[in-house]
Task: inverse folding
C-alpha cells in the first residue's frame, strides 16, 4: 500500500518490519547541498594557512573524529496485549581539526546529531515519524599567544538544524526548520589555555544573531524575534569554558559551558548553555554515551500545555530551563 503525504512517499505494511521513507526531491537537494558545503569547509580548513614549504603537515595539524550509532527495532504480529511496530535511530558525530605552530592555535569543530522514531499505527495503516534530535554546530576559534598560557582570540560559532520540527502532538504546526532558527556568534577576547583539557575564553565584545528565514512557516517570536522580523541582533559579553577529564579508566567526561549577556536589554538575564557527555568505553567498537544538554535562553518562549476537556492543549508560553537527555548503547568509532 503506497500513500503520498506532504511531499513524502510512505510505504507501510502493518506487519512488516521495514519502513520506507523518501524525502521530497527539492528538500533533499537543499539539505544535501548544505551538508556538502559544510564538509567542504571542514576539509579545506586543514589545508589553508599552511606555509608552502611545510613538508610534513602532521607536525602542525591534528585531525580527530568520532561517530556513535544506535538502532532499535520492534515488531509485533498477532500480539494479544497490543502495541505497534517501532524503529528508532540516533547518530552523533563530531569532527575536529587543530592547527598549532609557533604562537598560533586554530581549532575547528563540526558537530551533527540526528535521531528519529518511526511508529507503525496498524489501525490507521500509516507510519508516524518524529524527530528525537536534530542539531548542527560549527565552531572555529583562532588564538595568538600573548604571554604564557594566555592568547588573543577570535571565535565564530554557528548552530541550527536540518529538518522540520513539529509542535507535537500536532504535526501540522512547524516550530523549526532548516536555518529557522539559526544562531551565529562572532566574538573577540582572551583565552586562557593551561592544558589540552581546559580552556576559558572571555569576550567583552560579542555579536549574536538569531535568524528565522522560513518566513510564514516558523513563528520567530518563539525565539525572541519581533513579529514579521527575520533577524534579531544582540551585542554583549560572552564566556565559554571547555573541560574534559577521565573520571576512571574507561569513563571520559566532556563539558562545554557558554554564557552570554546582552548589553542592550536586561544584561542581568544571562543566557546559559551546558553540554555534558559521559563516554563509557566497553571495548574498541562498542560504547555507551550519556549526553545531557541544558539551555536557558531569556528570549525563547516555551509552550505550556494542559489537559482541557480531556485534550492536551497549549494554554500559553513561559520562560524556563530547557533540558535534553540521551542514552546511547551501540557502535562507536573514534579516529
Result:
Amino acid at each position: 500500500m503506497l500513500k503520498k503525504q506532504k511531499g513524502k512517499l510512505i510505504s507501510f505494511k502493518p506487519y512488516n518490519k521495514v519502513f520506507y521513507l523518501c524525502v521530497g526531491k527539492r528538500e533533499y537537494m537543499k539539505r544535501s547541498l548544505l551538508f556538502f558545503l559544510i564538509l567542504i569547509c571542514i576539509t579545506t580548513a586543514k589545508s589553508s594557512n599552511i606555509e608552502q614549504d611545510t613538508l610534513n603537515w602532521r607536525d602542525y595539524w591534528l585531525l580527530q573524529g568520532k561517530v556513535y550509532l544506535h538502532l532499535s527495532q520492534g515488531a509485533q504480529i498477532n500480539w494479544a496485549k497490543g502495541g505497534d511496530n517501532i524503529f528508532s535511530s540516533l547518530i552523533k558525530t563530531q569532527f575536529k581539526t587543530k592547527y598549532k605552530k609557533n604562537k598560533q592555535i586554530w581549532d575547528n569543530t563540526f558537530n551533527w546529531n540526528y535521531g528519529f522514531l518511526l511508529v507503525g499505527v496498524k489501525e490507521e495503516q500509516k507510519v508516524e515519524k518524529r524527530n528525537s534530535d536534530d542539531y548542527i554546530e560549527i565552531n572555529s576559534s583562532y588564538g595568538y599567544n600573548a604571554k604564557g598560557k594566555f592568547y588573543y582570540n577570535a571565535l565564530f560559532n554557528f548552530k541550527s538544524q536540518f529538518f522540520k520540527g513539529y509542535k507535537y502532538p500536532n504535526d501540522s504546526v512547524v516550530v523549526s526548520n532548516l536555518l529557522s532558527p539559526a544562531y551565529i556568534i562572532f566574538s573577540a577576547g582572551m583565552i586562557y589555555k593551561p592544558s589540552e583539557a581546559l580552556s576559558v575564553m572571555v569576550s567583552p565584545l560579542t555579536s549574536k544573531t538569531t535568524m528565522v528565514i522560513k518566513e510564514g512557516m516558523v513563528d520567530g517570536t518563539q525565539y525572541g524575534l519581533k513579529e514579521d522580523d527575520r533577524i534579531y541582533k544582540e551585542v554583549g559579553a560572552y564566556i565559554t569554558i571547555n573541560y574534559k577529564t577521565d573520571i576512571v579508566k574507561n569513563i571520559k567526561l566532556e563539558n562545554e559551558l557558554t554564557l552570554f549577556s546582552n548589553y542592550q536589554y536586561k544584561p542581568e538575564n544571562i543566557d546559559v548553555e551546558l553540554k555534558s557527555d559521559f563516554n563509557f568505553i566497553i571495548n574498541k567498537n562498542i560504547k555507551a554515551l550519556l549526553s545531557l544538554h541544558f539551555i536557558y535562553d531569556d528570549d525563547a518562549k516555551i509552550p505550556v500545555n494542559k489537559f482541557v476537556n480531556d485534550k492536551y492543549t497549549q494554554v500559553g508560553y513561559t520562560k524556563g530551563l530547557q533540558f535534553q537527555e540521551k542514552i546511547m548503547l551501540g557502535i562507536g568509532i573514534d579516529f
User: Anything to note?
Assistant: The domain at 59-334 is CATH 2.40.230 (Outer membrane phospholipase (ompla); Chain C). Helices lie at 25-45.
